[in-house]
Structure formats: structure tokens, C-alpha cells
Design goal:
- By secondary structure, the chain is an alpha/beta fold.
- It has a domain of about 240 residues: Aldolase class I (TIM Barrel), CATH 3.20.20.70.
- About 45% of the residues lie in helices and about 15% in strands.
- It is built from 15 helices and 12 strands.
- The strands form 3 sheets. An 8-stranded parallel barrel has the order 3-6-7-8-9-10-11-12, surrounded by 8 helices. It has a two-stranded antiparallel sheet with strand order 1-2.
- The longest helix has about 40 residues.
- It is globular, with a radius of gyration of 24 Å.
- Bound molecules: indole-3-glycerol phosphate.
- The site of indole-3-glycerol phosphate has 14 residues, from strand 12 and helix 14.
Length: about 375
């Protein structure tokens, strides 16, 4: 886990590259004015040093505060593990308790901590104002949820969101000869209603560029940017690369973040798939205004355990009623391999399914889709 090592070695608030203000000290009285200005900058820079340090600490505190807000909502994933636990003193000895401090407690937490550092670097490279300019050049948004609804109504089957996924932390490499555009085209001709393209590089070997390439190749299916979104910057970036929908993971994001990001997506006319894994997350998400599209992940992202009956469990009783009343489209996600699995989640109430492994592993992708549904869905 090399990501972990880099997180430990570099506390998050020192990760941002320091901007150095260069200059020469004045050596004589007849100095050109530019040199004087530079000298003043040097003096100011050294005066500002303590303020900069203080700011960095403040940024750190905000990160820790985020953890507290999240914890109050039952979110276990910390975005920035504390950089060190308080020392315990017993007699003359001092020690730290095991697994306190900055050790991620699960793979999901490790991914999120790494993402936090990654996003801070991206934001430095491309500040929001310059990213917003790129949006004007982005291709038009397509109706992701509408495409799923249309297929579901036309065929009576759940609409397929086929995932362009090279690897995952739980399964390793799923497909060696990985050409995202060819895979996307095959999925489209195999009857997929929409596509999901992994954008995370470190853990899933995906990229935003893969998604952009799929979009530029003329694939008509609307695209979900499959990324661990923790900052609005990523939403704008996804849109600039041609995404029509994004994923928000309730296990990672506090309610206020979800509600804020859903609003941003509405403004951008994008769909927001809000992913839940247990009853508590489902109840939280159902209380957030504007949520119209929910994914139930059968995989626990902390332990990797997969259980398709999770979809059924979360759609039973009152929760199912609310979902039907509000006409929320639910997606059954992960671990779907056979026509029986599809029938099972459909029976539970989903109108769409998100499938990666079982189809991306097949040498003939079109056949893979037909096998998953037990029939050729491209003929509908
Ligand atoms: O490959 P599978 O088991 O068919 O799963 C696809 C998709 O559900 C899974 O990739 C996924 C669902 N939610 C996520 C969040 C992050 C990364 C990946 C995921």
C-alpha cells in the first residue's frame, strides 16, 4: 500500500507545493526599482511565513472538524486521519495506542485520504475559475436517468449501466487488453442504456481521460463518472470531460455535502447517483431534498463483502413505499452475474442495474451482456 506510506510520510497540510518568492538582497544604493520591489517581496515573504504556517494549521483543523461532523452522522470514513494521537504516559514511558493516529482503518478510508491529497493538487494546478471556463467547451449533457427509464419502460427489464472498469482493489486486474473506447462501443451495441467509466487511477486504473475518449469517440450512451467525489471541483472537472452523471457515496459524504453537490449537478443538468449500502445511509439520503436517483451497493466498500440480498433488504417496507411515492429510480449495484441475479434485484424493485466484473471479463462483451440477461437485449 504505497499510497498509505506517502500519506504517513507527508502530513496533508504540508503536501501543497511551496511557492518560493525569489529575489536578491539589495547590495548598493543605486539599485534598479525591480530589484527593490523583489527585495521587498522577500522581506514580506519571510514576514508572511508564520501566517502561512498558521493557515496550514487552520486548513488541517477544518479537515479534522469535517471528520467530527461526519462522525456525528454515523460516517466512519475519515477524510484526514489525525496526524498523530495524543501520547499516553505511564510512569516514565510514553507511547501511542496501536492504530490510533494516521493509519487508514479500511481500504475505503485509504482511498478517500489519498483522494483528498490528489484533489488538493489538482485544484492548485487548475483553479476553479479556470475550470469553469472549460465548461463552456464541454459537450452537451445527456439525460442519464431518462435513458434508464426509457429502456425500463420499453423492455420491462432493468436498464443496464455497463461499467468500463479495468481493475479494482478487491478483484485486481479484470481485463488485460483494456481499450476503454472499444469496450464502450461493444457495450453500446450490446444494448447498454448507459455507461459508467472508472476515473480513479490509483486503485481502479481508470482515468477522466478514458471517459473523455469514450465521449469523443461518439458513443451515444450517457456517461457516469465513477469517481470518489469529495469536492465540488471534481464535479466540474467531470462535466468538462463529458460526464452526464456523477456518483456520490453516502458512506463518505455528510448530508450537507450531498445536498450541496446535488444542487450543483442540478445547475449543470447532470444526474446524481447517490450510493448507499445500509439502512442508516438510505434513511439519511431519503431525508435529503432533491435526491431522485439512488444506488444500492451490494458490496461493502470497507470489507468488500458482496451480498445481493442487500438490495432487497433496503427496499422493503416503508423505505420502498417512500421510493415508489417519489418515483425515485433505484439502481442495483455490484455482484450481479446471472439472469437470476438480475431477476432477483428487479423483483426487489430496481429499475436499473450497474454491472462491471461479470461483463468486462468476457472476451466477447456483447455476448457477456446477453448471458447476464439470459437474452440479447440489443434486439429490444
Ligand atoms: O464489478 P461489479 O461487482 O459488477 O460492480 C460494479 C459497480 O457496482 C462497482 O464498481 C461500484 C459500485 N460502487 C462503487 C464505488 C466506487 C467504486 C466502484 C463501485
Amino acid at each position: 500500500m504505497e499510497g498509505l506510506a506517502s500519506i504517513r510520510a507527508v502530513p496533508f497540510f504540508t503536501c501543497r507545493p511551496k511557492r518560493s518568492i525569489s529575489g536578491t538582497r539589495p547590495s548598493s544604493l543605486s539599485l534598479p526599482s525591480s530589484t527593490i520591489v523583489r527585495a521587498q517581496q522577500v522581506a514580506m515573504a519571510s514576514e508572511l511565513e508564520p501566517i502561512k504556517d498558521e493557515l496550514k494549521i487552520k486548513v488541517g483543523e477544518v479537515g479534522l472538524f469535517h471528520n467530527e461532523v461526519a462522525a456525528a452522522q454515523g460516517i466512519k470514513i475519515r477524510r484526514r486521519p489525525p496526524t498523530g494521537s495524543p501520547k499516553h504516559y505511564v510512569g516514565p514511558f510514553e507511547f501511542r495506542l496501536e492504530n490510533e493516529g494516521n493509519t487508514p482503518r479500511s481500504i475505503l478510508e485509504e482511498i478517500i485520504c489519498h483522494k483528498d491529497i490528489e484533489v488538493a493538487r489538482w485544484r492548485e494546478k487548475k483553479p476553479l475559475h479556470s475550470l469553469l471556463k472549460d465548461l463552456q467547451k464541454a459537450p452537451p449533457v445527456r439525460d442519464f436517468v431518462g435513458a434508464l427509464r426509457a429502456v425500463n419502460e420499453r423492455t420491462g427489464l432493468p436498464g443496464l449501466i455497463a461499467e468500463v472498469k479495468k481493475a479494482s482493489p478487491s478483484r485486481g486486474v479484470l481485463r488485460e487488453d483494456f481499450n476503454p473506447v472499444e469496450i464502450a462501443q461493444a457495450y453500446e451495441s450490446g444494448g447498454a442504456a448507459c455507461l459508467s467509466v472508472l476515473a480513479d487511477e490509483k486503485y481502479f486504473q481508470g482515468s477522466y481521460e478514458n471517459m473523455e475518449a469514450v465521449r469523443n469517440a461518439g458513443v451515444q450512451c450517457p456517461l457516469l463518472c465513477k469517481e470518489f467525489i469529495i469536492d465540488a471541483w471534481q464535479i466540474y472537472y467531470a462535466r468538462s470531460k463529458g460526464a452526464d452523471a456523477i456518483l456520490l457515496i453516502a458512506a463518505v459524504l455528510p448530508d450537507l455535502d450531498i445536498s450541496y453537490m446535488v444542487k450543483i449537478c442540478k445547475k449543470l443538468k447532470m444526474a446524481t447517483l447517490v450510493e448507499v449500502h445500509d439502512e442508516k445511509e438510505m434513511d439519511r439520503v431519503l431525508r435529503i431534498e432533491g435526491v431522485e436517483f439512488i444506488g444500492i451497493n451490494n458490496r461493502n466498500l470497507e470489507t468488500f463483502e458482496v451480498d445481493t440480498s442487500n438490495t432487497k433488504k433496503l427496499l422493503e417496507g416503508k423505505r420502498g413505499e417512500i421510493i415508489r411515492e417519489r418515483d425515485i429510480i433505484v439502481v442495483g449495484e455490484s455482484g450481479l452475474f446471472t439472469p437470476d441475479d438480475i431477476a432477483f434485484v428487479q423483483e426487489a424493485g430496481v429499475k436499473a442495474v450497474l454491472v462491471g466484473e461479470s461483463i468486462v471479463k468476457q472476451s466477447d462483451l456483447k455476448k457477456g451482456i446477453a448471458q447476464l440477461f439470459g437474452r440479447d437485449i440489443s434486439l429490444f
